[in-house]
TrEMBL record, chain A:
InterPro entries: ABC-2_transporter-like
Record bears the keyword Membrane: yes
Protein name: ABC transporter permease
Highest classification ranks of the organism: Bacteria, Bacillati, Bacillota, Bacilli, Bacillales
Keywords: Membrane, Transmembrane, Transmembrane helix
Transmembrane intervals: 24-46, 66-90, 102-132, 144-173, 193-212, 232-252
Keyword Nucleotide-binding: no
UniProtKB/TrEMBL annotation, chain B:
Keywords: Membrane, Transmembrane, Transmembrane helix
Transmembrane spans: 18-41, 53-72, 106-129, 136-166, 172-190, 202-219, 225-246
Name by which UniProt lists this protein: ABC transporter permease
Organism expressing this protein natively: Paenibacillus aceti
Keyword Membrane part of the UniProt annotation: yes
InterPro entries recorded: ABC-2_transporter-like
Length: 264, 258
């Protein structure tokens, strides 16, 4: 499927959502207030304690925003299709996505694109930019380029986790609860992972590489003790997203093969 | 045999969910404790050390598990699809019906997630129990208050949304207030003076901070009494507001021929 067709479908989906403008704006405002509260709690905490493991308020705000922003970007594309897949399969409505002469995966996620994450993006983007202006980083071209690539990679990574869980619907149908768990686990990276023991740091880096979303890119940018290690992890964060996403896509394809095989 | 197997598998998948939920809760406690350990180390700030915060985290997280937020969707759904008409015909008042329906849910939560979470996390992290057993009595009263206040707040959200036709935004806003002012992660001790003042004027502190603080015996003597009086006043206030809105909602429902 061409990118043009993909964006065209997405535009149509957005237009149809925008018909209920009032409730949409009200909802977005609610979400912004909701996330402001989360920021507020961290701010209140750091008013008292000044820093967590050497991370001050602006740095934590950056860390938190990077997670939220990339989640929102990833989720805009894949959250609704992936959490809805089980029900779509039960209702027998999945056929419509695989019987068209279009690549099923992009068609499926484009037609369930969710514009509702715009509020997440607004609030996290605003705080992200605010925190960038207020840190002492000197913004070279390389750093700016790094940040943009890191955001893209992390968005893929966030989406990949959801695609993996969604693909399990082909086997178990009911996977909603796994999404709740994913959100709980994602809470780990709301703070610098150095607060957890070595064991959890290894898991969050190598097994479930959530730390690649925000922790290592932040380390790279803020150069907390700029070492070869920080640089390597920082660069790894740029490739891990697309790579894991491709792996997730393979799992998706296996699932879909199983589905169309059994359905006959 | 096939039926037995099906039932068994259904139960198994449910059990799987309970386990996952448990892991989720314990990881919330673990994250909080890790942060407090990074912040406090072996020292103490304003007389509060790590072991205090461990107990606080376990208790406040546990309390938040048994609150009645689910009900927002139940009532909202009933108001919108008209099921409420059936409930209104029943010989028991709707709010009471809803309350006991929720109590059933809570009993399930207590057995399947609350008790295991407390047991496992106290084994993992260590829980400091109260010195006096009267504290436990006060703690249970505080829990009752938390449950009642969460009941009325959820009811209020569902009722207000009856006019706005969407719960979504309201729920987010109330969640925001609860996140900050319940103190369920950041206790009110660590708030700055102005913020603490605001928190103490709101009912949300009863949803996390008050039960935990009572459990830890940091609120004592006459202060407990004052706090409990405040809780009762909040319950009565919320009850009156809900009652008024409820009457109006019903009238509107009847007028619309709902």
């Amino acid at each position: 499927m061409s990118i043009r067709l993909f964006t065209y479908i997405v535009q149509l989906v957005i237009k149809s959502k925008m018909e209920y403008k009032e409730s949409f704006i009200l909802g977005a405002m609610g979400q912004i207030v909701g996330y402001t509260a989360n920021y507020l709690v961290i701010w209140l905490l750091l008013q008292k304690f000044e820093s967590i493991n050497g991370w001050g308020w602006t740095e934590i705000a950056f860390l938190y925003s990077l997670n939220l922003l990339t989640y929102a970007i990833g989720a805009s594309f894949v959250y609704s299709p992936m959490i809805g897949l089980g029900q779509i399969l039960i209702d027998g409505k999945f056929e419509q996505y695989i019987t068209k002469p279009l690549a099923s995966f992009p068609y499926f996620i484009a037609s369930l694109f969710n514009i509702g994450y715009i509020a997440h993006i607004l609030i996290s983007g605003t705080v992200l930019i605010w925190s960038l202006v207020n840190t002492s980083i000197d913004w070279t071209i390389v750093r700016i380029l790094y940040l943009i690539l890191a955001i893209i990679s992390a968005s893929f990574l966030q989406a990949a986790f959801m695609v993996v869980i969604g693909s399990l619907s082909f086997y178990f149908l009911r996977v909603q609860y796994l999404f709740t768990i994913l959100f709980r686990v994602r809470e780990f990276i709301a703070y610098p992972i150095s607060v957890y023991g070595t064991f959890f740091q290894i898991i969050l880096t190598w097994i479930i590489p959530l730390a690649m979303i925000n922790y290592y890119p932040s380390l790279f940018l803020f150069s907390h003790g700029s070492s070869i290690e920080t640089t390597l992890y920082g660069l790894a964060a740029l490739v891990v997203g697309p790579v894991v996403f491709l792996l997730a896509y393979q799992i998706w394809r296996r699932g879909i093969n199983r589905y169309s095989g059994a359905g006959g | 045999m096939a039926i037995v197997q099906k039932a068994f598998l259904r139960n198994m998948s449910y059990r799987f969910e309970i386990w996952l939920r448990l892991i989720g809760n314990i990881s919330v406690v673990f994250i909080q404790i890790s942060i407090w350990s990074a912040l406090l180390g072996t020292g103490a700030i304003e007389g509060i050390d790590l072991s205090t915060m461990i107990t606080y985290s376990i208790i406040s997280t546990s309390v938040s598990m048994i609150l009645m937020y689910q009900m927002i969707h139940t009532i909202d759904g009933k108001l919108k699809n008209g099921d409420i008409a059936m409930d209104l015909l029943k010989p028991i008042s709707f709010p009471i019906l809803m309350f006991f329906d929720q109590v059933g849910n809570i009993c399930f939560q207590v057995l399947c997630t609350l008790v295991p979470t407390i047991v496992i996390s106290s084994l993992l992290f260590g829980l400091t129990f109260p010195h006096e057993w009267t504290t436990l009595l006060l703690f249970f009263i505080a829990i009752l208050f938390a449950v009642l206040i969460s009941f009325f707040i959820s009811y209020l959200i569902a009722l207000i949304s009856f006019w706005f036709l969407t719960t979504f935004a309201l729920e987010w806003m109330f969640t925001a207030l609860i996140t900050v002012f319940s103190g369920s992660f950041l206790p009110l001790w660590f708030f700055s003076k102005e913020w603490r003042g605001v928190a103490e004027m709101l009912p949300f502190q009863f949803l996390g901070f008050i039960p935990a603080a009572i459990f830890m015996e940091t609120i004592e003597g006459m202060e407990v009494l004052w706090v409990l009086v405040k809780g009762v006043l909040w319950i009565i206030t919320l009850w009156i507001i809900v009652q008024l809105l409820w009457r109006r909602a019903i009238r509107r429902l009847v007028l619309q021929g709902g």
